[in-house]
Amino acid sequence: MHSPLKARRRRFILIISLAITLGFLFLLNLLQLSRSHDASSSIQKLSERLKELGLDSTPWSMPDSIENNQEEEEEDQGKDGLIGNRVKQDYSKGPKNQHQQKLTQKELEVLNLNLNLNLNLDLEAKKNPHKYLGGTRKMDTEEKLKYQSGKQLTLLGVPQKDQDFEPVTIPKPVYKTDVSTNFNLNPIKPLRFRIYSHNIKNGGNRPLTPGESLWNDRVHDLAMSMKFHITANTIITLQELYKYQVLDIMNYLNLDGDAGVAGGSNSDGDVPTWDFYGVGRIDGAEYGEFAPIIYNTKEWELVYSDTIWLNEIDTRISYEGWDALYPRICSYITLRHRELQNVINVFNTHFDHIGKLARKGSAKLIMDTVQDLQKQQCKNIQGNHWPAFIMGDLNAEPKEESIKILKDGFVDSVTLATSNNKYGHTKSTVTGFEGEVLLNGGQNIDYIFAPKYAQLIDDVKDKVDNKAKSNKEKKEKCDELKKSNAFAERADLTLLLYGMLHSRFNGRYMSDHRPLLADYYISNKCL
């Protein structure tokens, strides 16, 4: 038999065990109630915040139009931005109907993160949705009208999914330019000018890539970078943008009231200071990506312009070339400085990202086009021998064959830079929208090419230090030079500054490429 003491001990242990179990269940119940209360509170906060913004408080509802096209968009999302949803929200994880769905704890955590990180500036964003002039001040009524005047043109030039385009033929413009290369009659005058080049990433109605912001958010940063770096005689070349994007950039550059050369209107108040030349690569007019060249009409006169298609069949027809995935173009212009009468030729292009043969063939075609321009005759003027510059996104590293072809007649501006005149990044013209290209070692595929006779600034200094001291020797040398009509023998072309600029501000990339900048100086050897 068991003793009474042992029986009492067993009952005591049983009671203690039961009490511990009940206590544990009680605490667990309290924890669940707390989580439920937190969830309800978080949902309420989110709903109130969304209502302040005037947004629907059922964020997981899925529009029928998006639901019906979801599978189609996923299949075609890589087709060069021809289709797709421009909105950044990912509806694929939401319900397939218009009804509310109860949020899981994981979804709630995602919403809370979005609430804390992305909606902190909600009130300011509502007042200033396009981050106008830095996003720190409210636009008045007049400013709103000016800024929004072109917004009805949104997506202008973007091909739609159901559109079919036949190849077009664009005749070559007649060369009527009286560009003087008689350097005895019209001496070359000193001129400093700047080239700013940037692939700014097409907009369109395609899905956003990871890390990419909407165009309405990116355009402000892009345009402000241009305006900040504009100086006297600046020429801007851009790649990979549709016509509506070009017009948005032009709206920013031509805002009334801007001081100096950065923008505004001419003295009559109606003609914008900044203008551009460019055509769409699909139809030679509005559709498809542009490679526009932008210039200040107060400083430069456009005397010739043309666009060629980069293919092996006919450069006047909008065909894809060789193994290229898309039709590619090169737009080029001749600009004459209004005051000094100096002339420069600017070639802007975007090579195919797939076709290696296409890039090689494109380089040869552009070299041929430069030579043809130099042979053009008008009014007994023998050709255009002024310097030509080639820039753009060439989708090729420096050692690729296409770049070697261009280097037969041109020099990459970065190779002329020294530690005393080089600014910014030293590696990778491409970043990606999340910096992923940098993590993989980077890519240098964007260029500003100058004529091969362009010089380092140190070379020019050496020539100045070692030039003939006597006036007699200098006169004899200049008399000899006057017999030549070659620009390179009559003038020096010198790189003054070069920069690979920054493209990420406030945690956001304005493009997946970085802007390039080069300052050149033309000087007469005998002046």
Description:
- This protein has 527 residues and is an alpha+beta fold.
- The chain folds into 2 domains: 10-147, no CATH class; 215-524, Endonuclease/exonuclease/phosphatase (Deoxyribonuclease I, Chain A), CATH 3.60.10.
- The protein has helices at 4-52, 64-76, 105-118, 122-127, 141-148, 215-229, 243-253, 356-375, 401-406, 436-439, 457-466, 471-481, 487-490; strands spanning 191-199, 234-239, 274-277, 293-296, 300-309, 329-337, 343-350, 377-378, 381-382, 388-393, 410-412, 422-424, 446-451, 491-500, 504-505, 508-509, 516-524.
- The strands form 4 sheets. A 7-stranded mixed sheet has the order 3-4-2-1-17-14-12. Strands 5-6-7-10-13-11 form a 6-stranded mixed sheet, with no helix packed on it.
- Helix 6 (215-229) links the parallel strand 1 (191-199) and strand 2 (234-239).
- The model is unreliable at 55-102, 117-139 and 149-153 (pLDDT under 50).
- Keywords: Coiled coil, Membrane, Transmembrane, Transmembrane helix.
- Residues 457-491 form a coiled coil.
- GO terms for molecular function: 3'-5'-RNA exonuclease activity.
- This is Endonuclease/exonuclease/phosphatase domain-containing protein.
What is this structure, in a nutshell?
By secondary structure, the protein is an alpha+beta fold.
**Which sequence of SSEs, written as H and E, runs from N to C?**
HHHHHEHEHEEEEEHEEEHEEHEHHHEEEE
Widest sheet: strand order?
Answer: 3-4-2-1-17-14-12
Number of helices: 13
- Please state the oligomeric state of the protein chains shown: single chain
CATH class of the largest domain: Alpha Beta
Can you say what the CATH homologous superfamily of the largest domain is? Endonuclease/exonuclease/phosphatase
- Which structural class do you get from the secondary structure elements? alpha+beta
Total discrete domains? 2
Into which percentage range does the β-strand content fall? 15-25%
Which CATH architecture of the largest domain? 4-Layer Sandwich
Low-confidence stretches: 55-102, 117-139, 149-153
